[in-house]
Amino acid sequence: MPRTRHIVFLVFDGVKMLDICGPAEVFSEANLFGAHYRLTYASTSGRAVATSIGTAFAVDQAVGRIERVDTVVVSGGDNLPTKPIPPDLVAAAAALQARCTRMVSICTGSFVLASSGLLDGRRATTHWRYAGLLARAFPKISVSPDALFVHDRGIYTSAGVSAGIDLALSLVEQDHGPDLARDVARNLVMFMQRPGGQSQFAAPLQIRAPRTPTLRALVDLVSAQPALAHTTSSLAAHAGVSPRHLARLFANELDISPAKFVERTRLDHAQALLDSGHGVAETARLVGFGSAETLRRLFVARFGISPSQYRARFKTTTGHTQAGPSSGLGPAEEPGRTSAGTHRPATPAKRCSG
């Protein structure tokens, strides 16, 4: 019989409800298939906390009473990136890290770990909207802004709510193997590996406003008209500087090359056009990639999924007309279902390692 693994969720006032319940449901579902997870919810005071949706969340005990545990999960909260984090919450995270085998943060919970110094010298991620802020506020952290989740020496950080669910499933697979994790994924009607590998689809190119007027004008030009034939030489000529000087400006202020900036900007625009229903060939033309094949190659390299697959998955939340109760997947994508609606054994799916 598998040993019992104790998982503690550190919760606090303002905690995002789904950041608790999403991963917790994955671990609880795993128990139905033979896993042995014991879930405990703890706050610094041992009292109930108010969640992001306004409901009270009861806890089992205070952090100070917890001894040795297997996994600690620090959930996110909307205020964590923008307001001072309570010192007792930071201290609680540090104390729990010393008592556990692995430490996990969901979404903006990474700011709690960062404030406690636990992420210094490590790779980490967070919700794409706050990745730049995390990197600037905590320069000792190597932030991966578009990863779904990152593992570095016993500490796991994840992006938004659904990425926290992905990470929980990955931990189940780590503990109990792919077969049990696959059963959990099927029961929860979720992917063993989310399409797109480790990329946060929603993450646009985040840049600081350039200080140099010349560079700011070029950034505005590329962002407003990505379809123009932008090259390092043409941008340098437009700015009246040498290509080498332009490359230094981009590197010093934006930490990116001119060519890579143009490519990333075009991909951001391509995402928006695909989201709004444009075809792949039309999107390639409108953003300046020249051909659908060029767009496909760069899109796959960036997101791990083709433009046509992205368009099919993200253009609408409405299922096919023949589909049954909404599952979030079309009938051809539901585990164990073919496009004709007949059942078959679901094929094994690979899982990313995080």
Content of β-strand: 5-15%
Rough shape? globular
- Span between termini: 27 Å
| Integer count of domains | 2
Provide the low-confidence segments as ranges.
Answer: 319-354
Structural class by SSE content: alpha/beta
Q: Largest sheet, if any?
A: 7 strands, mixed
CATH topology of the largest domain: Rossmann fold
Average pLDDT rating: 86
The count of β-strands is: 11
Q: Could you state the order of secondary-structure elements as H and E?
A: EHEEEEEHEHEHEEEHHHHHHHHH
Number of helices: 13
Protein architecture, described:
The protein has helices at residues 17-31, 87-97, 110-115, 128-137, 161-176, 178-187, 213-224, 232-239, 243-254, 258-275, 280-287, 292-303, 307-314; strands at 5-10, 37-43, 49-50, 56-57, 61-62, 69-74, 100-105, 123-124, 142-143, 149-152, 155-158. With 354 residues, it is of the alpha/beta class. It folds into two domains: 5-187, Class I glutamine amidotransferase (GATase) domain (Rossmann fold, 3-Layer(aba) Sandwich), CATH 3.40.50; 213-314, Homeodomain-like (Arc Repressor Mutant, subunit A, Orthogonal Bundle). β1 (5-10), α1 (17-31) and β2 form a beta-alpha-beta unit. α8 crosses α9 (243-254), α10 packs antiparallel against α11 and α11 (280-287) packs across α12 (292-303). The longest helix has 18 residues, at 258-275. The model is unreliable at 319-354 (pLDDT under 50).
